[in-house]
Structure formats: structure tokens, C-alpha cells
Amino acid sequence: MHKTAYVLLILTTLFWGGNAVAGKMAIGHVSPFALNFLRWVVMLLLILPVGLPHVKRDWPVIRKNLALIMFLGAVGFTGFAAIMYKALEYTSAVNVSIEQAAIPMLIIGLNYFLFRLTATWLQIVGFTISLIGVCLTATHGDLSRLAQLDLNIGDAMMVIALFCYATYTACLRLKPRMHWLSTAVVFAFAGLCAATPFLLWEYAQGEFFVPDATGWTIVLYAAVFPSGLAQVFFIRGTELIGGNRAGLFVNLVPVFGTLLSVLILGEALQGYHILALVLVLTGIGMAEWSGLRAAARQA
Questions:
Q1: Count of domains for the chain
Q2: Domain span holding position 270
Q3: Which residues cross the membrane (predicted)?
Q4: Is the pTM of this model over 0.85?
Q5: Residue 97: which pLDDT band, with cuts at 50, 70 and 90?
């Protein structure tokens, strides 16, 4: 069970890391909120033929929990990504990478505040080690750059985005039991509904533009991998090992994003990339070992 969760969560963060690269490549090819809206449209078109029968079968459960499901889909599927895409117009990728590393600690805090779920000291230590790895990645191996960050409105927007995803992850424990295809369909529908006001605002501001060929390629990637497979994998991984432990894997996103930038965008691979990956994996390993011990004691 735990090995399955690890594979799912690593693939999730790999796809999300690819989304960061796709977001860089999208500039000038598709506007931010158009990308966010269209990826849910494409995902629904792809998944509805196989997911609709499960939605019909699970409809009594869905209808009973519709408000909660719509909230989770809106906050988790659109809230974080839409705000992050817009924030990147104002702040740097370095800032965003460092700020995303706060998500696991926010999840731990919200789990305690909402559900009185506590983290072990070793999990906190593991988070700290992973955070150092993320900072090494984001600052290109020079931690002194942390003192030189230029914070602006984009960074304030990212705080809202971080709380969106942390809230979504912490509250996934409340999701009713239903088939994973039903979950994907209804969450994507909720995400599409939440994405519509952002798209209308972008159009009203005169900032909307139709994707070109490259833009559509990015939309297709975002729909299939970060929006489709990654979200389903993250939901299942969270079900298997819990929000606190699953949330720590988010620290792999900036590391994978950097490594994919090396492979796809031709950026140079540096020693600090390898060190950062080792630190992040060490931190996750420590936290997981502690979580497994705690679960064994409760069994």
C-alpha cells in the first residue's frame, strides 16, 4: 500500500514539475486564465466517455455531498493553479519555487487546526531538510539570495494560492467514498466552474488571447498530466498515507521542475541540483519512516 502511494505521489510531483516548465513555455502562446480554463475543458472531454457511467452510479453519494465536492474541486483544481499562473506575471520563478515549499507545513498546521492531527518531531525535521533542498534549487545553490528576494503583489497572490492547495489537501479526508473516475469528473467540473469567472475577468481586461499551435500543445499536456493523472494520483496517494505525509512530496515539484528545465529547456545541470534532490528525498524518507512507526503503534 505504501509503495503504491510513493509511486503515485512521485509521478504526481513529476507531472506538476513539468507543469512549471509548461507554464514558462506558455508565455506568449496562451493567456494564463485561458490555459487554466481550457485544460479543464479538454480533461472533461477526454474523461467523460469512461467516467460518466461511474458518476451515474455514484450520483446518490455525489448529490448528498455536492457542496463539499464543489468546494474541494474549486479550491484544489482551480484556486491554486489559476492564482499561481497570474502571480508568475508579477514575481519570479525563484520566489514561487520557494513559496511552494511552505505547502507541507501549511497542511500540517491546517490538519492540526481542523482535525487535531499532529505531526511527529521527526516529520518536522524531515520537512526542514526538504525545505533546505528546495531553497538550494530555487536559489541556484546560493542560499544568500534568500535575503535578496524582491517581494511584490505576485508573492501576496501566491500566499492565497498556497492556502488554497493546503486547504484542499487537508480536507480531502472529508471526501466521500466513490470511484476514482467519478471523483475526477466531478472535481474537474467544479474546477471548470471555478475557472470561468477568472476567464471572464481576463477577457474583460483585454488580456485574453486564443492559443496558437504551441499553446494548444501546452493545454493538452496540462489537461492530461498535471490536471488529469496527477490530481487523481494525488487524491489516491493522500487516501493511502494521509495529508501530512502526502503533502511533503510537494517539495519534489521545484526539484523536478529544475531537472526537467535542464532536459527540455537546455539549462545546465549543476551540483546543487543533485544535492537538493538528495536533501529532499532524505527529508521525505525521514518523515515517512516516522509516519510508518506511528501507524504501526496505532495498529
A1: 1
A2: 2-298
A3: 36-55, 67-88, 94-114, 121-139, 151-168, 180-201, 213-234, 246-266, 272-292
A4: no
A5: low
Cell numbers standing for residue 296: 504501526
Q: What is the DSSP string of the chain?
A: -HHHHHHHHHHHHHHHHHHHHHHHHHTTTS-HHHHHHHHHHHHHHHHHHHHHHHHHHHHHHHHHTHHHHHHHHIIIIIIHHHHHHHHTTTS-HHHHHHHHTTHHHHHHHHHHHHH-----HHHHHHHHHHHHHHHHHHTTT-GGGGGG----HHHHHHHHHHHHHHHHHHHGGGSPP--HHHHHHHHHHHHHHHHHHHHHHHHHTT------HHHHHHHHHHIIIIIIIHHHHHHHHHHHH-HHHHHHGGGHHHHHHHHHHHHHS-PPP-HHHHHHHHHHHHHHHHHHHHHHHHHHHH-
d(CA 16, CA 149): 24
